[in-house]
Amino acid sequence: MLPQIVLAALSHTAGLSRQQQTGSVPDYPTAPAGNPFVSGWYADPDTEYYEGPILGLPDRVTYLDAFSSPDLVHWTKHPNILTIQDVKWATEAVWAPAPIARNGKYYLYFGANDIQENEDADGTKVGGIGVAVADRPEGPYVDAIGAPLIGHYYNGAQPIDQDVFIDDDGQAYIYYGGHSHANVAKINEDMISIGDLDDNNSGNGTATRYKEITPENYTEGSQMMKRNGTYYFMWSEGGWGGPDYSVSYAMADSPLGPFERKAKILQQDDAVATGSGHHGVIQVPDTEIYYIVYHRRPLSETDGNHRVLAYDRMYFNDDGTIAPVKMLVHDNFADGNAIGWKMYGDRIDNWTVAGQHLVGGCKDDGLAMLDTNFTDLVMNASVAVSNGTSERSDVGLVFRATNLGGGSGSSGSSFNGTAAAPAGPAVFNGYYAGISAAGYVVLGKYDSNGTMTTLGQASVARLQAATDYTMSVTAIGSGIKVYLGDTNDALITATDSTYTSGANGVAVHAAAGVFGDVSVDKPT
């Protein structure tokens, strides 16, 4: 069981509404300061907007945290906004929170105790979906009714993974369900009791409260949103602990459905991450800017519980359908962190983030690497040499790298928890493109002994120390090209098929380097 869980993120009067007034709307293709965008093992996010974006995120543990942001770049952690000590009937865990506000109060719906159908049938266990209430978005929250709001199986749906939605007419609905069944029910205006469904009855004059709406391939993770009068029911498919976890959706004219599966819109990308699912949605108010916020598993992680939080842009087609979401890799270090990066080399403690740049230096070779595995790629970054100790001092980009080794550790990625290994120069198998203030650009390939074979070199006049240069690399099949500055002409063109895929990052060689605005993508 993990030591932490997440719930909601929020922002106050300095939030998106003020940004819109000043024209600074957060309009990004992906999290600009990198995914994961907060540090820690977290899962099952849900979102709400309280004078700014609020984001929810949990995993099955004994307390819930919250994160808030005024700009979707800088995040503040609000720990322990709800714990099992606050919910007397929650004896095991709380997870998957869903936040919403009404009538000046803030409500938090959550799953607890992971009740199973046989335990419900014989009454041996209390569990299900609870509701807590607070006077502020960041809590503290207290149990609103002292018992589960939904504490039994109806229509075969496990009472977990809820989302609460308030329609334009003021009617609130709860969508939920695990074990491959989904239900919808009305929530009364008090937000702490279940109402009757007016248009659906049992046939014997008794009102029905829980209507099954299970679409094809539904597993869990219900989510509802409305856009231009259309209701979008979204859910997770596949196994939560496996790489095939994903998100699909349906569209309907009514909040009660029927919901017919349209398509899968978010799934693993073997170059970026696996296990992508259980999401929330952020809409920047009064805009068509939408983000899908979800958890995913870094490529090198094998533990099913090791999940991190990410968001990417969600686009709609002209007919209202949702385009497939693309996981993008980008980090401009604007949050002051290097979350998700891992450092290798003799002086990993020298890697810092300053002035929206990643800064590092080693007496031998040092690496800062992302957990990626691109084959064909386009990689861009700003690169600068601060100083060097020899004629061969250079800094640059690493790609298709495997067998990373040497002194290793992590920086800005507290969720990783990896301690620094014994000091030593970083080693890897892969390609490297670097620049030197001595006036050259070099492309080479490294072997695991730390030996570089030069594939190409170009002299460049007027290269200045401590000056940012835009460096770009394209690698398509065996063809590799290196660019410097805003030009369509490659400085170096080479053909080599030694390495076909691997991780991406930056490197220093007997020098100090400064890197910014790093991005990696597949060629179009």
How would you summarize the topology of this molecule?
Blueprint: E1 6-8, H1 16-21, E2 46-49, E3 53-56, E4 63-68, E5 76-83, E6 94-102, E7 105-112, H2 117-122, E8 128-134, E9 142-143, E10 163-166, E11 172-176, E12 183-187, E13 197-201, E14 207-208, E15 211-212, E16 220-227, E17 230-237, E18 246-252, E19 260-266, E20 273-283, E21 290-298, E22 308-314, E23 329-331, E24 342-344, E25 352-354, E26 357-369, E27 377-388, E28 394-405, E29 408-410, E30 427-436, E31 440-446, E32 452-459, E33 469-476, E34 479-484, E35 492-495, E36 503-521
Parallel strand pairs: 1-4
Antiparallel strand pairs: 2-3, 3-4, 4-5, 6-7, 7-8, 8-9, 10-11, 11-12, 12-15, 13-14, 16-17, 17-18, 18-19, 20-21, 21-22, 23-36, 24-26, 24-29, 25-26, 26-36, 27-33, 27-36, 28-30, 28-36, 30-31, 31-32, 33-34, 34-35
